[in-house]
Hints:
Layout (H helix, E strand, L loop, with lengths): L4 E4 L6 E2 L5 H8 L6 H15 L4 H12 L3 H16 L1 E2 L1 H8 L6 E6 L5 H9 L1 H4 L2 E4 H4 L6 H11 L6 E5 L2 H9 L3 E4 L3 H19 L6
Parallel strand pairs: 1-4, 1-6, 4-5, 6-7
Antiparallel strand pairs: 2-3
Helix pairs in contact: 2-3
Amino acid sequence: MTTTCVILDIGGVLEFTPDTGWVQRWEQRLHLPPGTVNARMHDVWHAGSLGTISERDVHDQLATRLDLSTADTDAFMADLWTEYLGTPNNELIDYVRGLRGHCRLGILSNSFVGARERETTLYHFDELVDEIVYSHETGIEKPDPRAFETVCATLDVQPEHCLFIDDVAVNIAAAQSTGMHAHLFEDNPRTITRIAAHLSAGPSLLEQPRLA
Length: 212
């Protein structure tokens, strides 16, 4: 039996994650020019997103590169996670929860080391979908086509039977390049309508050529 599937991003889709200005506040507190934090930490942020560095190493590098005390390092990371985790998009989460048992459900997220534990504790995404594929665990970030191939393999589904939902246009284009259907998240009503249409179409129609 052919399996229909819906795959969602987390930040900007299942979570609302607006810019809180925490980096700028820390630069002001530390009397650093704007952009200094990300310039000094860029390679650490990238390593964290690919899982090539541990949380402990992130803390150590942060303390060294920004000359922070242990207390300030902990406070800095607390601010990072507050913005990263945002607030839950409860309307969409509740809708997706109602799809359990009707299709395969997955998450594909560009993430940071430590995200699974925190998002599981706060939002229980592990109970919402069948599989979660995090970049910090696979070492592959969207829009790399391998990220989409990995999530399909993990869910044991064919890309042409999947609808991928993300708030970043380049990721939508990348998903489509691998054969997936894709929807750019802008708001809940249009996203829910698009998911419903995908599920109503059924595998036989989903196998038809995708229209722009």
